[in-house]
């Protein structure tokens, strides 16, 4: 930027104002402007005002050029760095999104953002389907693209783009699968077998079924979280397997689980045997590396029970309580669910809404009618 006071050939004073603006994103994008103030406008005050006006015009033109030339790869990088800087998501989540976008969008990475169309996005989603990628991931991936474009539009990087190319794209209708679950009888058989052979994972499995806590929450439980006086177990932390650290729970808030007699017996035994640690449950080999699912499946198969993932034990807790008539709102509070849709799946699985609904339905003939009734209506040949 420069303001120069000069004189013309007639010895009259004038001001020459020169400004330029360069893109911080694309170094080749540069805009220059200049203006000459003569006569009554040849004052320092008006020159300063004109300088600001020209700079504003330069910056606007730079942003327009950025929007026209900005490639999708560059937009992804900008979005990724913003997510890290603002700490909107964890570093691991931002990296997962970045890797997924670069992997599946390689055909459009070097296209200008304003040239990407819904057809391009549909092609990518169709390719994912052909590769056997789940509907859940494809739905999430579509949201990733929306998030990146919406952020770019809001931040002014995409001046010529008004809407994300992923908006309005529909995936095939979801077919809800029945959640894997263990019945009450199967759960008892499973825990009885584990206790009989003194399996080292027995207290962890029992705690999972009796509290509905997530795997990471169980791992992070400490003795100070136990309130035996009021029969409450506080869940306020969770272990992050990828970052190898204790963090807040998934919902970001603490909750409490009522301690019944069975849970109390497990806790008392743990407090009496695990004296050298602040953690309530033992530090089992491989638990902090995500081996809990494989260990559970192996044991269940060996006992002739259905193979289920570790998270299913949380579902067993909810389903068993529903079958006992406990209010869904209470179970949601204990488990830390905020989404009613999650709860509704287990309500359907437990069949509590349908129980007894057909008891009053009676349409078959009365047994007291006997053979005389049948003779009155001979069979058609």
Say what the CATH topology of the largest domain is. Answer: hpI Integrase, Chain A
Order of helices and strands: EEEHHHHHHHHEEEEEHHHHHH
CATH architecture of the largest domain: Orthogonal Bundle
Strand content: 5-15%
Q: CATH first level of the largest domain: which class?
A: Mainly Alpha
- Whole-number mean pLDDT: 85
Count the strands? 8
Largest sheet: 3 strands, antiparallel
Counting helices, strands and paired strands, the structural category is: mainly alpha
The rounded distance between the terminal residues' Cα atoms is 105 Å
Widest sheet, order of strands = 1-2-3
Shape: elongated
Estimated radius of gyration = 33 Å
Going by CATH, the homologous superfamily of the largest domain would be Intergrase catalytic core
Q: Please tell me the total number of domains.
A: 3
Helical content, roughly?
40-55%
Q: Helical segment tally?
A: 14
Q: Can you describe this structure?
A:
The chain folds into three domains: 2-64; 72-154, DNA polymerase, domain 1; 184-350, hpI Integrase, Chain A (Orthogonal Bundle). The chain is 47% helix and 11% strand. The chain is built from 14 helices and eight strands. The chain has helices at 44-69, 72-86, 91-104, 118-130, 135-154, 184-196, 202-211, 215-220, 261-273, 292-302, 312-323, 328-335, 340-350, 370-375, and strands spanning 2-7, 13-22, 30-37, 226-227, 232-235, 237-240, 245-248, 255-258. The chain has a three-stranded antiparallel sheet, covered by helices on one side. It has a three-stranded antiparallel sheet with strand order 4-5-8. The protein has a two-stranded antiparallel ribbon with strand order 6-7. A hairpin with a 4-residue loop joins strand 6 (237-240) and strand 7. Helix 6 runs antiparallel to helix 7. The protein is elongated, with a radius of gyration of 33 Å. The N and C termini lie far apart (105 Å). The mean pLDDT is 85.
């Amino acid at each position: 930027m420069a303001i120069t006071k000069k004189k013309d050939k007639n010895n009259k004073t004038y001001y020459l104002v020169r400004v330029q603006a360069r893109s911080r994103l694309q170094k080749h994008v540069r805009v220059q402007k200049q203006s000459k103030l003569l006569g009554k406008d040849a004052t320092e005050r008006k020159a300063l005002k004109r300088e600001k006006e020209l700079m504003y015009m330069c910056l606007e033109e730079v942003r327009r050029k950025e929007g026209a030339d900005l490639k999708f790869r560059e937009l992804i990088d900008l979005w990724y760095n913003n997510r890290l800087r603002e700490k909107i998501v964890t570093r691991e989540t931002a990296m997962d999104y970045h890797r997924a976008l670069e992997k599946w969008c390689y055909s459009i990475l070097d296209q200008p953002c304003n040239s990407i169309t819904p057809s391009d996005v549909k092609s990518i989603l169709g390719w994912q389907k052909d590769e056997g990628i789940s509907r859940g991931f494809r739905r999430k991936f579509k949201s990733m693209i929306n998030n990146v474009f919406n952020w770019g539009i809001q931040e002014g990087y995409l001046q010529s783009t008004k809407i994300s190319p992923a908006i309005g794209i529909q995936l095939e209708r979801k077919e809800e699968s029945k959640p894997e679950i263990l019945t009450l009888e199967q759960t008892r058989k499973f825990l009885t077998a584990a206790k009989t052979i003194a399996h080292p994972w027995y207290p962890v499995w029992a705690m999972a079924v009796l509290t509905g806590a997530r795997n990471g929450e169980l791992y992070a439980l400490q003795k100070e979280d136990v309130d035996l006086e009021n029969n409450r177990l506080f869940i306020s932390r969770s272990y992050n397997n990828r970052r190898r650290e204790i963090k807040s729970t998934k919902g970001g808030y603490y909750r409490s689980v009522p301690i019944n007699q069975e849970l109390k017996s497990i806790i008392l035994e743990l407090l009496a045997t695990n004296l050298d640690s602040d953690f309530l449950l033992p530090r089992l080999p491989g638990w902090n590396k995500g081996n809990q699912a494989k260990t559970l499946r192996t044991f269940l198969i060996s006992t002739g029970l259905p193979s289920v993932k570790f998270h299913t034990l949380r579902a067993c807790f909810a389903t068993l309580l529903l079958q006992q008539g406990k209010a869904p709102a209470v179970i949601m509070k204990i488990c830390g669910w905020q989404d009613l849709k999650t709860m509704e799946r287990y309500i359907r699985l437990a069949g509590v809404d349908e129980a007894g609904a057909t008891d009053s339905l009676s349409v078959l003939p009365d047994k007291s009618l006997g053979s005389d009734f049948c003779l009155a209506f001979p069979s058609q040949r």
